[in-house]
Amino acid sequence: MIRQGINKIITLYHGSQEIIETPRFGLGKKNNDFGQGFYCTESEELAKEWATSAGRDGYANRYLVDAEYLRILNLNSPEYTVLNWIAVLIEHRLFTPSTPVESQARNYLIRNFSVNVNAYDIVTGYRADDSYYDFAAAFLSNTISIEQLASAMRLGKLGEQIVIKSKAAFASICYDGCINAPADIYFKNRETREKEASDSYLNMLSEESDGLYIRDIMRGKIGNDDPRIPRNICE
Length: 235
Prior knowledge:
The protein is α+β, with helices and mostly antiparallel strands.
C-alpha cells in the first residue's frame, strides 16, 4: 500500500536502553523482521516494554515523522494476508528448516507471498516476539492451520511495529524527547503479555481445525488472492 500526499505527522516511539536523538540510516541488523531499519511503534507503553526486555531500565524515545510524501507499506491492511508477513519474516530472519516440509514451505511462501519491503520508506507489520515467531514456525511445520495462525496473531495484543527504512524516511524524523521506562513495571508487563498469548494459543490448539494447512496450500498451488486465506483487518 502506498500512501502519498497525506498531510500526516506520525508520532513514533523506539524502546531502548539508550537515549537516541539522531537515528541513522544504514545501522541495525540486516536479519531483523523486515530487514535493516529503525524499529518503532506507535504505542508508548509497548515501547517501554521493549526498552526493558533485558530486565533493566530503559527509555521510550519519541519522534515525529512527516509522512506526507513517504511510501508506506502496511502488511496488516486487508490488501495483504498473514502469509505475506510470514514470507517477509522468513526471507529476512535467520530461519533454519528442521524438516523437509518446513524447507518446502519456506521456499513456497517466499516465492508466492513475499513483498519487496525495500521498495518502501516505512513498513508496518506484526513484531516477531517469541510468541509470534513460535506461531509462524508451527504453521510452517504443518502443525496449525492458516485460520488458527490468523487467530493466533491477534492473541495477547503482542504488538505492531513500524520500521523506518529509507534515507528519505530518516530525513523526516524529528526527535521529541524521551520517557523513562522502569523495568520493575514494564518488564513484568511484557512477561504478562507473552503469557496471555501463550495460554490463549495452547487453548486454541486443543480445538480441532479443518482449515487450510501449509501442505494443502502448496499442493493446491494456492496464491494470495484465494478467498480461503483470511485477509488482515486494520483496527
